[in-house]
Structure formats: C-alpha cells, structure tokens
C-alpha cells in the first residue's frame, strides 16, 4: 500500500480519542548531559509535532498528561520550571493553534496553580474555544483520584439539594462532574518512557481503553512511533485495512 493511500485510510480508522502520558523527559535530558528542565522543554517541542501528526491522522481528541497532582513533590526548581512552561509554550504556539483551528482544553485543578500560569492557560482555552479542529486537552495538575473525589462532592451536593435521589446516581451522572465531562472516553492510552504504570491518569475514563507502552522517552516520540501505536490499536480491534478499502468497517 502506498503512503498516500495509507494516510487516507488512517484518517478513517484512527482512534477518536488518544491519551498520552508524556513520560521520560527528565531521563532524556540526563542521558544527554542536559538538565531535567531541558528535557521538559524538548518534550514541549515534541508535543507540537504530535499534535500536528494527530490532526493529520484524523484524531479528534488528544489528551496529554503534562503535570500530575503528585508532581508537586518534585524539587522546587523543577516544579517552578513546569509551571513556567505553559506560559512560554502558549506564548509561542497560540498563534499557530489559532491558524490551525486547534482547540485547547484543560483537565485538572487550576485553582492550585500559580496565577500567571493559570492566566496563560485560561487565555488559551478562551481564545481557542470556537475552533473546530482537533481538541488538545492538557491534563494539568490532574489526578484521577482527585477528579473522582471532587465529582463525589458535587454529586452529594446534588443529593443534598434534592435534585437527585441516591438511586439515580449512575455512570452518566458521575461523568457530568468529571474534568472531561465534554469528552468521550479515550480509545487508546499510550505511555512513553518505559514505565508501565497508570500514575493516577484517567482512572475512570480509561476503563475500556487499549493500553500501549513504549520505551521511547517522550522527546523522542515521533509521528512514526505514534503510528506504531495506532497500528497496534487497529490490530487489537481487528481492523483490517482491506476491509476499510471495501467499506466494511
Ligand atoms: C514526564 O517526564 C513529564 C512530567 C512529569 C512533567 P518525567 O519528568 O517524569 O521524566 P522521567 O520519568 O523522570 O524521565
Ligand atoms: C506521570 O509521570 C505524570 C506525567 C507524565 C505528567 P511521572 O513520572 O510523574 O509518574 P511516576 O512518578 O513515574 O508514577
Ligand atoms: Mg517520569
């Protein structure tokens, strides 16, 4: 199959929503005699390429784990850099995202994030909210347990106000109070960097996702590696490219 044809097919059969735990930035830096922060900067550059590649492949939603609720425990200098990075990133990339019709969303607790970082993030959300292309959802100060806990508090509030009876609490109701309430669940969950952990990512949403782990450090995660993950997803889903050709998928 030639590349053009493959590209066309991929558009039809790529997963709708991919979530990526972007792990390995620190080790990438260290192994190159650089700082961990330089690794995070390199990761941010890779992010732009992966967003672009995902858009070209017809993926509708990309959720990127950028900072976990556990990452506050890291050395202050590193945390400070990770809080500075979104400011720098959006300053550089927002015009590109506007031009490419990319919509930015956030999953996580922004109330605990320094004001300058929060402002840069909310500006990106606000500015891109009418864009209709790929949705890039950054998980920032995100924790799966934290998300479920805050949803529980809100459900209990609904019960207290007599808007909901306990018997009426179902998956749909809980879903409405998750950070990702507007998004479908991920189909494919990728973790780079060699670790095979969930690290508190999308505990509720990934209930049915295909899990894919790769040893590549995130700064080295190119479009080809993303394609490998998608091919594996297709294989597990028994999606045959030739079935697609015959329009039977
Ligand atoms: C992931 O890379 C990025 C963030 C957690 C922000 P790491 O910083 O965890 O890199 P490693 O795992 O230490 O190499
Ligand atoms: C997960 O990676 C969080 C992000 C990529 C943002 P970590 O490196 O923080 O996770 P652990 O510490 O290996 O579980
Ligand atoms: Mg890590």
From TrEMBL:
<protein>
    <recommendedName>
        <fullName>Isoprenyl transferase</fullName>
        <ecNumber>2.5.1.-</ecNumber>
    </recommendedName>
</protein>
<feature type="binding site">
    <location>
        <begin position="24"/>
        <end position="27"/>
    </location>
    <ligand>
        <name>substrate</name>
    </ligand>
</feature>
<feature type="binding site">
    <location>
        <position position="191"/>
    </location>
    <ligand>
        <name>substrate</name>
    </ligand>
</feature>
<feature type="active site">
    <location>
        <position position="23"/>
    </location>
</feature>
<feature type="binding site">
    <location>
        <position position="72"/>
    </location>
    <ligand>
        <name>substrate</name>
    </ligand>
</feature>
<dbReference type="GO" id="GO:0000287">
    <property type="term" value="F:magnesium ion binding"/>
</dbReference>
<feature type="binding site">
    <location>
        <begin position="197"/>
        <end position="199"/>
    </location>
    <ligand>
        <name>substrate</name>
    </ligand>
</feature>
<feature type="binding site">
    <location>
        <position position="210"/>
    </location>
    <ligand>
        <name>Mg(2+)</name>
    </ligand>
</feature>
<feature type="binding site">
    <location>
        <position position="36"/>
    </location>
    <ligand>
        <name>substrate</name>
    </ligand>
</feature>
<dbReference type="InterPro" id="IPR036424">
    <property type="entry name" value="UPP_synth-like_sf"/>
</dbReference>
<comment type="function">
    <text>Catalyzes the condensation of isopentenyl diphosphate (IPP) with allylic pyrophosphates generating different type of terpenoids.</text>
</comment>
<dbReference type="Pfam" id="PF01255">
    <property type="entry name" value="Prenyltransf"/>
</dbReference>
<feature type="binding site">
    <location>
        <position position="28"/>
    </location>
    <ligand>
        <name>substrate</name>
    </ligand>
</feature>
<feature type="binding site">
    <location>
        <position position="23"/>
    </location>
    <ligand>
        <name>Mg(2+)</name>
    </ligand>
</feature>
<dbReference type="GO" id="GO:0045547">
    <property type="term" value="F:ditrans,polycis-polyprenyl diphosphate synthase [(2E,6E)-farnesyl diphosphate specific] activity"/>
</dbReference>
<keyword id="KW-0808">Transferase</keyword>
<feature type="active site" description="Proton acceptor">
    <location>
        <position position="71"/>
    </location>
</feature>
<comment type="subunit">
    <text>Homodimer.</text>
</comment>
<dbReference type="GO" id="GO:0016094">
    <property type="term" value="P:polyprenol biosynthetic process"/>
</dbReference>
<comment type="similarity">
    <text>Belongs to the UPP synthase family.</text>
</comment>
<dbReference type="InterPro" id="IPR018520">
    <property type="entry name" value="UPP_synth-like_CS"/>
</dbReference>
<feature type="binding site">
    <location>
        <position position="74"/>
    </location>
    <ligand>
        <name>substrate</name>
    </ligand>
</feature>
<keyword id="KW-0460">Magnesium</keyword>
<feature type="binding site">
    <location>
        <position position="40"/>
    </location>
    <ligand>
        <name>substrate</name>
    </ligand>
</feature>
<keyword id="KW-0479">Metal-binding</keyword>
<feature type="binding site">
    <location>
        <begin position="68"/>
        <end position="70"/>
    </location>
    <ligand>
        <name>substrate</name>
    </ligand>
</feature>
<dbReference type="InterPro" id="IPR001441">
    <property type="entry name" value="UPP_synth-like"/>
</dbReference>
């Amino acid at each position: 199959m030639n590349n053009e044809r493959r590209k066309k097919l991929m558009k039809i059969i790529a997963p709708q929503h991919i979530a990526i735990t972007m792990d390995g930035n620190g080790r990438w830096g260290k192994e190159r005699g650089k700082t961990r922060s330089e690794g995070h900067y390199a990761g941010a550059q890779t992010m732009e390429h992966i967003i672009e590649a995902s858009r070209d492949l017809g993926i509708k939603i990309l959720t990127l784990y950028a900072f976990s609720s556990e990452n506050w425990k890291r050395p202050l200098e590193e945390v400070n850099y990770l809080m500075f990075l979104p400011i720098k990133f959006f300053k550089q990339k927002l015009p590109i995202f506007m031009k490419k019709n990319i919509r930015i969303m956030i999953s996580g607790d922004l109330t605990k994030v320094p004001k300058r970082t929060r402002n840069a993030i909310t500006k990106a959300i606000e500015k891109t909210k009418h864009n209709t292309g790929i949705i890039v959802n950054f998980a920032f100060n995100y924790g799966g347990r934290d998300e479920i806990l805050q949803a529980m508090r809100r459900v209990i509030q609904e019960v207290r106000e007599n808007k909901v009876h306990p018997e009426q609490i179902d998956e749909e109701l809980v879903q409405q109070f998750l950070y990702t309430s507007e998004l479908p669940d991920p189909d494919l969950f990728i973790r780079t960097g060699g670790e095979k952990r969930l690290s508190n990512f999308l505990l509720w949403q990934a209930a049915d996702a295909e899990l894919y782990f790769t040893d590549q450090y995130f700064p080295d995660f190119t479009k080809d590696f993303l394609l490998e993950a998608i091919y594996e997803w297709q294989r597990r889903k028994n999606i045959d490219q030739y079935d697609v050709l015959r329009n039977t998928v």
